Amino acid sequence: MSLASLQRRLEGVTQLSLDTGVFIAAAEEKDPRRECAAWLTRAVEQGRFRCTISVINVAEILAGGFARSVSDGLARKGHLETFANVTIVPLLLDLATSAAHVRSVTKLPLPDSIVLATAIEAGCDAIVHTDLDWVSRAKTYRQTIQMIYLGDHCP
Amino acid sequence: MKARAQAQTDTTREVKLSSNRQVGLPAEFARELGVKPGGKLIQTLVRLPGFGTVVLLMPKPESHAKALAALIAGDAPEGGEAYVRKLRREWRKRG
User: Is there a contact between A27 and B63 if contact means CB atoms under 8 Å apart?
Assistant: First the structure.
């Protein structure tokens, strides 16, 4: 299991979603999944994938920034909004409805359900996540979207 | 003169918006940012409840992925998986 295994798993995928944990893992020196996560974010930036993320992901990434300083939070927002090949999807009524349905089917917490519903509604081929609970709870959606647990490839 | 003196410090400048909404970037600020004429900058606007509206100006990095990672580094020494789980548990907390 390695970066090569993740790359093989993503063959044929052009549009994907990255959950917050991927962005965090890409940044943290000691995170064992850093190499894979950093490859994913760079691959999006370089145009290998088009990426859709939820405003929930944005809020989670910005939370750590604003906890440090307003300028840190602002800078993160600026980078996310201008990140090549990334689309940030707002939470509007139709998506909120889908997320509530995903929650009822999967019993995943609401933020996870919003993130997953965003990827499904955006027509993503795959979502890369870092939560082992998704593997069992969200299996209903495996025919709709490939759910790729980062730890399966970069433990 | 006093107001002008107060607005001119090493890190804060009062600038005037031109008729076509342009402002000048002081040479010292451009030097600090590492940008030259023709270089690209990113402006981001944020409405902060209770604080007003703020615009941040920063140099366009070679890689947003790397620049973002550099900012995030240190948020989650416990790793991405545990950090996100902790954040999402906050939704279940009651006041």
Answer: no
Return the amino acid letter for B52.
G
d(CA A16, CA A44): 9
pLDDT, block means (10 residues), chain B with 95 residues: 57 90 91 92 90 91 96 92 91 70
DSSP A142: G
CB-based contact, A63 to chain B, within 8 Å: yes
Q: For residue A33, with 0-12 CB atoms within 10 Å meaning exposed, 13-18 middle and 19 or more buried, which class applies?
A: buried
Structure tokens at A37: 């996560």
pTM, entire model: 0.89
Closest residue in chain B to residue A68, using alpha carbons only:
B75
Assigned token pair, B95: 């006041």
Q: Write down the H helix ranges in chain B.
A: 2-7, 27-33, 64-72, 80-89
Q: Within chain B, how many helices (H) and strands (E) appear?
A: 4, 2
Are A80 and B83 an interchain contact pair (Cβ–Cβ within 8 Å)?
Answer: no
SS3 A9: helix
